Amino acid sequence: MFKLQEQLRMQNQELALKNADLDAFASMVAHDLKTPLNAIIGLTEVLLKIYPEGLSNKQLECINLMAQSGEKMTDIINALLLLATISKQDICLQPLDMAHIFAQVQTRLALMLAQSGGELIVPERWPLALGYAQWVEEVWANYVSNALKYGGHPPRVTIKTELRHQEVVFWVEDNGPGLSEESQAQLFKPFSRLSRDKRSKIQGHGLGLSIVKRIVQKLGGEVGVESQEGMGSRFYFSLPRADNL
């Protein structure tokens, strides 16, 4: 029994070291890519501002595609940097003004919501939870943007909260097609994109939900999903209750 426990401890230690090496590598690569990518984006902006009248429609189209691709690459790099730094960053849990945090998310996603013609239903009152505001905003942004992307036509996204003994659970419900058990098992894994994503025109890098999981676990909570095919999905995350202090 002792030998088995020792083997398990060694395996966990080895896995932790490999994860640390992977995070360091991702951070290094992301930093190295950021400088030349910023130069490319800057040059495309210069071309569009200074020479718009001297360029043909085809040239303008190509430059706009370059700019859009640069922005997508920037999103991927920022996601990699966030994923790599979460486990290393020391934070202090603070009571969250969740109404303000979610208002920030609504501002970020206002264009997406308008373009989708969707509806976002938000609680009138928010229970008090502990966390780190900047990271919790990223959790909400990932969950809500996914609900808008993969919800019904138009999407209807409902935010709910649930007070439990030592935690607050936050739910994001959508009216989409739902997920199979096989698909649910792949969620929250880095670089995992479901078959629905690959078949659709929706762009993504497969890092969003893995970032959500790492953030929430760092804050002392859990993540998960409840879904049935044809019945929509309910994604959730939990945080410690602030009124337990």
UniProtKB/TrEMBL annotation:
EC number: 2.7.13.3
Reactions listed under catalytic activity: ATP + protein L-histidine = ADP + protein N-phospho-L-histidine
InterPro entries cross-referenced by the UniProt entry: HATPase_C_sf (IPR036890), HATPase_dom (IPR003594), His_kinase_dom (IPR005467), HisK_dim/P_dom (IPR003661), HisK_dim/P_sf (IPR036097), Sensor_HK_Regulatory (IPR050736), Sig_transdc_His_kin-like_C (IPR004358)
Keyword Kinase recorded: yes
Cellular component terms (Gene Ontology): plasma membrane
Pfam families, per database record: HATPase_c, HisKA
Bilayer-spanning residue ranges: none
Domain of life: Bacteria
Domain Histidine kinase: 28-243
Name of the featured protein: histidine kinase
Source taxonomy: Bacteria, Pseudomonadati, Pseudomonadota, Gammaproteobacteria, Thiotrichales
